[in-house]
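Subject: Protein record for review, amino acid sequence with backbone structure tokens
Concerning: The relation between a protein's sequence and the shape of its backbone.
How to read it: Take the token row as a discrete description of the fold.
Enclosed: The protein record, placed directly beneath this head.
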Amino acid sequence: MTKTGLFVGLITLDLVYLTATYPDNNQKVVAANYAVTAGGPATNAAVTFSYFNNQTTLIGVLGNHPITHLIKADLEKHNVRIQDLDKNRSEPPPVSSIITTQDTGDRAVISINATKSQISKELISSEILHNIDIVLIDGHQMAASLEIAQLAKSKNIPIVIDGGSWKLGFEEILPFVDYAICSANFYPPNCESQEEVFEYLASQNIRHIAITQGEKSIKYLNKGKFGNIAIPKVNVVDTLGAGDIFHGAFCHYIFDGEFTEALRNAANIAAHSCQYFGTRNLFLVGENPDLSQD
């Protein structure tokens, strides 16, 4: 059944290069491949959610700088609707430069994120959640996200956070969250271990919590019960965006089953994505969108 999702956060232009090695100081390296796509945690998650034939809206800051046409073209290709909260912005959108190494699939990223394009909560309409079934927040537009989280909670719309890293303001949003899906780099204040992260998030009355660890197993706390989910073993080409893809797939699968089942299916999709260069090739190879049973 088709669902509608609202994805709130960062919209960037990603310039991705595949190289044999990272360059040394003052060294020029010729890339073996490259890709130019829209990027950002919420953006890649939105593309993934749309991949499953869901109706998808991405909300953030884009503006009217000439290079935004590249972002719009990519997202239009993947049927993601953009709700731009600062259409008259003339400054360029955030641009990320990314190097992926051929041997390991590891990546290095340089980006300013949304630090220069924050938007006010006053720009959030009370009608923004009309016909929305799920909300994902990546933490890069905190004031707007808090307003949306409060509205979603009042309408009993489930809220997922992409906790890639701790960002100031998350402490206000967490009490409204239903699903906290965090990376191993997500450490709230005064938390120094994953056990303390689980304890902190549980204290915010979040009943469904998971911590992803790359190729290592996912740790979760589901309604007070701890567990682990193994990650499928694949031939890794590129890990870029795998976590974002995981979040978008989770938002799709959570309607079809239990929390742990959704985590397992999302992990399968994310693992498959690591077999392709860039963040879009998985969605362009013509495979059946539902890879959960592979």
